[in-house]
């Protein structure tokens, strides 16, 4: 009788001898590997985000919706989700939406492939670029951190005539479509221009090589000219060669200077024609007669007092970077003031913002 270790009163009989041993218990299956987007290995420490006005710490969906309910479109909060490990974005655009921020391969994003090294980098990108890169319905940037976002009940808008109507919304969408079509044509022209400039640069480099060759040949001929053993006939030939090379060198350098001037003029012309995107908060031409710079509402009232309906001006506003200017307009015998919104790329009186500059905005509504 053979006692099996760890088993009490368990014996092998004679009939069991010679049979293969019973297999032992199967080893436990290894745990399935988590998808890369669920790995918490390089999660950003929430403590490093506490100083940012958009960070809400641990916050559930209902609390996030509550802090954004009275804020304008583009208001947002980054929060630590209460339903999964990681961060979420809650943003307001016509309605409040919740977007999971995933972590994959050590980088953050809303979908694969992720590309941001930190939550801060992700937020900075979408403060400049619209969320439509991720979701076509979200035509907004991250404009107002929830801690500093204006509240509809507390913002001093009593003296302004901002307002969204269906007619204005339709006009803005139409203007945005025209603007995007114009930009598409501009982008195609930029591609053609870029190829043209590269060809000019290749020609300049080739001409520079020719000039350098003339210089080397001239230097060689001058050195040969000073050889004592050179007879008069050869010396005259060398002299003639030097003069010819000098003539070619002068012409080559003249042509090179012209080519450099041509490409500089081409670049200056192109720069003056390009639309301004993502630049300063006030993009207006030097010839704009409607722009008066920094004026208060009271000063604008005085300038427009007694003017005919339709008379207007655009002035700087100290409200915020997202509403850097105001339109002051004479209508119905009174002066009305309307905020001009700016998302870092386009201007407009209401969403969707549709204009590349103050000039194009004013021209559209004339």
Layout of helices and strands:
Layout (H helix, E strand, L loop, with lengths): L54 E4 L2 H8 L6 E6 L6 E7 L1 E10 L2 E3 L9 H10 L15 E2 L20 H60 L6 H42 L17 E4 L2 H8 L7 E9 L2 E9 L2 E9 L4 E2 L9 H8 L1
Parallel strand pairs: 1-2, 2-6, 7-8
Antiparallel strand pairs: 2-3, 3-4, 4-5, 8-9, 9-10, 10-11
Give a verbal description of the structure:
- By secondary structure, this protein is α/β, with parallel strands linked by helices.
- Helix content is 37%, strand content 18%.
- It has helices at 61-68, 119-128, 166-225, 232-273, 297-304, 358-365; strands at residues 55-58, 75-80, 87-93, 95-104, 107-109, 144-145, 291-294, 312-320, 323-331, 334-342, 347-348.
- The strands form two sheets. Strands 1, 2, 3, 4, 5 and 6 form a six-stranded mixed sheet that branches. A five-stranded mixed sheet has the order 7-8-9-10-11.
- Helix 5 (297-304) links the parallel strand 7 and strand 8.
- Helix 3 (166-225) packs antiparallel against helix 4 (232-273).
- The longest helix has 60 residues, at 166-225.
- The relative contact order is 0.08.
- Mean pLDDT is 76; it is low at 1-19, 27-42, 153-159 and 274-280.
Weakly predicted, low-confidence segments: 1-19, 27-42, 153-159, 274-280
Q: How would you describe the shape?
A: elongated
Give the C-alpha Rg.
36 Å
Strand content: 15-25%
Derived from helix and strand composition plus strand pairing, the structural class reads alpha/beta
Share in helix = 25-40%
Number of helices: 6
**End-to-end CA span:** 107 Å
Average pLDDT reading: 76
What is the count of β-strands?
11
Helix-strand string: EHEEEEHEHHEHEEEEH
Largest sheet: 6 strands, mixed
